[in-house]
Amino acid sequence: QVQLVESGGGLVQPVGSLRLSCSASGTIFRKYNWGWYRQAPGKQRELVARVTSYGTTNYADSVKGRFTISRDNTKNTSDLQMNSLKAEDTAVYYCKLSQLGVDYWGKGTLVTVSS
After folding, report:
1. Are 54 and 75 within 8 A, CB to CB?
2. Residue 28: predicted pLDDT
């Protein structure tokens, strides 16, 4: 089993920045992928960014150039640096770790972008 804990959410003004972190514990193998997702009120959960075990990254079009996903394999953590935040980025953000065909999710952290 794998447990994930997100941190770093909160209230930020438009054009501000936040950094989310996700820490994994439990049985973690060498090759696994990280993903960050978000779910806004009344909307479906959507992929924000992901990074593979090889370091390949993908981003949703809506966050390209503003968000950066990273990973630290020595600590089993992933960060999501979010810059130039907009009101439409307001959502609960979830991290996901995928290994051996199994997905593990964190409980989410709320990000509110508002003046």
Report:
1. no
2. 92
